[in-house]
């Protein structure tokens, strides 16, 4: 009897949680977070273009350094957007 009761309790809790979920779109980050994320993505694109120019110019070390920076900037943008959405949930 105890096993049967313990199997039903998580289901009831899941149903209650589902009823209180936000409406679609209400978990989108605010405009300020979106602008910061867009700026970081733009900076990543700029660094990628600089990396390409360095590679074309023959400076492989600078190209790799700038390409590494692109990864860092894009990870920052992705984590900022993910954190903002998580806080709204």
Annotation keywords:
89 residues; mainly alpha; 3 helices
Low-confidence stretches: 1-9
Could you describe the largest sheet, including whether it forms a barrel? none
Q: Between the first and last Cα atoms, what is the distance in angstroms?
A: 36 Å
- How large is the share of residues in beta strands? under 5%
On the 0 to 100 scale, the average pLDDT is 76
Task: Give a topology summary.
Blueprint: H1 2-19, H2 31-56, H3 60-88
Explain the overall architecture.
This protein has a domain at 27-88. The protein has 89 residues and is an all-alpha fold. The protein has helices at residues 2-19, 31-56, 60-88.
What would a concise description of this structure say?
The chain is mostly helical.
């Amino acid at each position: 009897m105890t096993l049967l009761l313990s199997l039903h309790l998580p289901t009831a809790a899941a149903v209650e949680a589902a009823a209180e979920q936000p409406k679609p779109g209400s978990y989108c980050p605010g405009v300020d977070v979106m602008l910061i994320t867009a700026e970081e993505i733009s900076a990543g694109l700029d660094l990628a273009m600089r990396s390409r120019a360095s590679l074309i110019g023959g400076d492989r070390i600078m190209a790799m350094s700038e390409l590494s920076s692109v990864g860092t900037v894009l990870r920052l943008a992705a984590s900022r957007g993910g954190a903002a959405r998580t806080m709204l949930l």
